[in-house]
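Appendix B, record 7
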Amino acid sequence: MSAPRTTLRRSLAAAAALPLLAVALTACGYGSDAKDDDAKKANAAADGKKLSADTVRIGYFPNLTHATALVGDQEGLFQKELGGTQLKTSTFNAGPSEIEALNADSIDIGFIGPSPSINGYTKSQGKNLRIIGGSASGGVKLVVNPDKIKTLDDLKGKKIATPQLGNTQDVAFLNWISEKGWKVDAQSGKGDVSVVRTDNKVTPDAYKSGSIDGAWVPEPTASKLVAEGAKELLNESTLWPDDKFVITNIIVSQKFLKEHPDVVEAVLRGSVNTNAWINANPDEAKASANAALKKLTGKALPAEIIDPAWKSIQITDDPLAATLDAQAEHAVKAGLLEEPDLKGIYDLKPLNKILKAAGKPEVADAGLGVK
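Structure tokens (predicted):
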């Protein structure tokens, strides 16, 4: 994979081709119960004064890659920082719907992936959102039928699923194919490898039926396939510098950021504290995330799926801005969009203020921050 660039030069003409797949995760049935959770949040709220807004509305997906939001809410860590300002949460199944909610003033802050962040920013001509922090890296794998594919070179001539045309994993796979020297038409998916766009919910059935030979997919779909006999052939993290690339970041409405900077800082402090707790207590955090997911989905994710899925995701404060830049470049290279102007998409000043106060290293915006 080519090295990430730090600037982008051309304007966007087709960013709508870059939707983000929303992977609906199921949950495991352990962790604190609802009454304990409500009491935890109520106590946190009672401890502090109300900030400049009565309420802050946060959106996220019921996904393991959104563990910061799941655990931060579940454990009352956001509410502790917000004090008397009430936290209201909404969940979404897809990035575009979360961007629509942000644009419609239905949410103020969102946990979301790189593709809809780029899409939302460029379609609004840089006027609707800023990326203000990181949340997760990794959690994407190439898994294959070991009877048909034993090496990466064996992918030629095979049918490999990605979640959606132009989504983050689709772009990554098309870029990988290009770097192998193979040819694929990005729109049709036809070529030296057949790229089959398949919703993650049906990918396991497609695999079992033999209609696909493998998939380049996020967790927990990758681990679901492995549990059914597939083999992990490549972890996408290994293709990136330091094995890191953005899968989830934090966005905020520019209007809300301007009017309520104290609330935004409180949410970011909650995020930083949550990430520190997750990384220090991975097993307990996994249980907390599953307790949250169970409340949201009503279903259980068995240990043979959640354990490897959880281990493959890195929780981080760093938005890994250079990798978002690179992902946009890969979409341009694949012919899915013209290169966007992302200057100003990041405002990391509030986060860096918090990190500095906590004695932690500041994070970079790859030259894409506000002046």
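Remarks on this record: The CA atoms of residues 40 and 73 lie 10 Å apart. The chain has a mean pLDDT of 87.
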